[in-house]
Amino acid sequence: MRTKESIKIAVRAILGNGLRSALTMLGILIGVGAVIMLVAVGNGSSVAVQKQIQSLGTNTLIVNRQGGFGPAAGGRSRTGTISRTTDLTMKDVAALRDKGMNPDIKAVAPTLMAQSVTGTYRDATYSPAQFIGTSAEYAEIRNYKVASGSFFSNDDVENHARVVVLGQTTVTNLFGTGVDPVGATVKFGNINMQVVGMLARKGSNGAQDLDDVAMAPVTIVQDSFSGISTSLNNITIEATSRKAMDLASSEVTTTLLGTHRITNGTPDFSVLNQGTLLETSQSTNRVFTVLLGAVAAISLFVGGIGVMNIMLVTVTERTREIGVRKAIGATKVDILTQFLVEAVLLSVLGGLVGVGAGLAGSRFKVVGVTPVVAPYSVFLAFGVAVVVGLFFGIYPANRAASLRPIEALRYE
Amino acid sequence: MTGPGRAGGEWVIVVHEAVKTYSVGSVAVHALRGVSLAVERGDWIAIMGASGSGKTTLMNILGCLDIPTSGHYMLDGIDVSTLDDRELAEVRNSKIGFVFQSFNLLARTTALQNVELPLIYAGVKGRERRRRAMLALDAVGLSDRVEHVPSELSGGQQQRVAVARAIATDPALILADEPTGNLDTVSTSDVLSLFGRLNSEGRTIVMITHEPEVTDHAKRVVRLRDGMVIEDRRQAPVSGPPPLYAAGAPSSVAAAR
């Protein structure tokens, strides 16, 4: 018998038992949809973290005070016995800028985060999420472009100049949309600062709005906004190339051990390597994605058992039909094909709708993660659905094909 | 009407000393104890017998649904006892048309599609298949009911669809198992006169029944008891019309309806 006939018969059988077929397909649908969606969520979170790490700039090293990743708590707590030696200072920055000592370092920028600085322009007030004191290299390292005006220079840093560069979100909140703020004077805290540049839009890295910033020379921020602290939050460093990152990292360690006068080899700072960070996050995310995928795969498997279950019921129900077909000339292969096609068709249809559902579901944010559909997961999930249909269809179909016509005909 | 052996003889069925023994647990049940039977082309035989007489076993063997434990069975010149499952399916498809007591039409499937079924397994395609199925339905007087599903047809009509399905592949033998067992008297005479017409057109019919008024229509009556033939009576010659069939009555089917 031709496959075309088998498909026709299978379609008729599936349509003839509409609700039951729909419920069976639902099992596969949920399985396929879940695989696609959960892998997309895992993938999405991986992409988000990578974006965050990459938004640090390329080939970036970050020196933090001991205590690990993230901005330090402003240094105020670091008083008493350990106090000054644990600080990151402009002396450290100067030492790192020494090309002779650090041939693999391309640029060094200090960063000092001022806490909740409110800017006022005419009637508008706004506190940018980040008020960063830094040097001219920061724009280059973190890959900030200037849309209008210019970034402040290192002369401005030397001179404690009262200048500021604003991100787009800050500009919109203080000036309104589409206004060029360059040349205006904004009062930050209680000092008037001149806007010298507006940054080009950078968007979000998935966790924070990179345009919600204001940047000023590190010197003026130290003078006016950071209280009694003398420590920088961290030092951002760009290596000359990706390959040189490990070398640069060890140069940083050597230099800072020197400036901090540490002889026992236990650094009071940590050097964060962007490359290592990326690798770690990638491998973590891979595990995460595989776990999610595995959970979803189990539901696909359960869906397959559903197919088998319903096919067994179908075979029992249609025992007489099988007997009749055999009596009028159907071979074992004909019957086997017929029921196998029916099982595969159930899972293929369920799988197709599941792909649609998975793709549709991946358009929504899930717990703050924007899912990114991995093409391989679509093919994999659909392929597995077909294989599941085939695998779980074989037993019932074989049972149907092995029925002896005399007994099948007598079956009530 | 082609096929191996078709040219060779006028015997559609030759059964020689067929024995069938089942083992139920450790007990051997002798369903057939050496049955010999030869059926000529164009004959109409009624096989009678009480339950347990072996008539169902004989029917299964004649229909190639089962094989004898010993003995030979030649169907239309083919030695069936040497065939494997696949070849048996092929023989059932091309040589035998089954008519069952409970019709056994596929539910939710139109009369036309039911009749097309054996043609599908014979590998007949598309338009030709439809044409032959229509022809068979026409022969049983149901060309106006082709798109009806079994639940929309009366018992007599369903059995006529079943007969159309049986003759669709133009088989050498029509094998009917209690074809009137589930029918009222009107439908019974309806189906019997249809058989009469098919037989008078030259088709060979083997029919199992236990109703004497049904056996009266056959040309020959074979009675079984305890797995053996105890009576073989001819009621009318092979050539010529069946006994109760009014030859020349043009549309006995339509009249009976």
What does this structure look like?
The complex is a heterodimer of chains A (412) and B (257). With 412 residues, chain A is α+β, with helices and mostly antiparallel strands. Chain A has helices at 3-16, 18-54, 90-96, 137-141, 154-158, 168-175, 218-224, 245-259, 274-317, 319-327, 332-361, 375-402, 405-410, and strands spanning 60-65, 105-114, 119-121, 124-126, 130-134, 146-149, 163-166, 185-188, 191-199, 213-217, 234-239, 269-273. Chain A folds into 3 domains: 3-52 and 281-410, no CATH class; 67-111 and 228-267, no CATH class; 116-224, no CATH class. In chain A, strands 1, 2, 3, 4, 5, 6, 7, 8, 9, 10, 11 and 12 form a 12-stranded mixed β-sheet that branches. In chain A, strand 3 (119-121) and strand 4 (124-126) form a beta hairpin. In chain A, helix 2 (18-54) crosses helix 11 and helix 3 (90-96) packs across helix 8. The longest helix of chain A has 44 residues, at 274-317. Mean pLDDT of chain A is 86; it is low at 68-85. The radius of gyration of chain B is 18 Å and the shape is globular. In chain B, strand 4 and strand 5 form a beta hairpin. Chain B has helices at residues 55-62, 85-95, 111-121, 126-139, 155-167, 185-200, 212-215, 252-256; strands spanning 11-24, 27-40, 44-48, 70-75, 78-79, 96-99, 173-177, 204-208, 220-225, 228-234. The longest helix of chain B has 16 residues, at 185-200. The chains are: A alpha+beta (412), B alpha/beta (257). At the A-B interface, helix 1, helix 10, helix 11 and helix 13 of A face helix 2 and helix 3 of B.
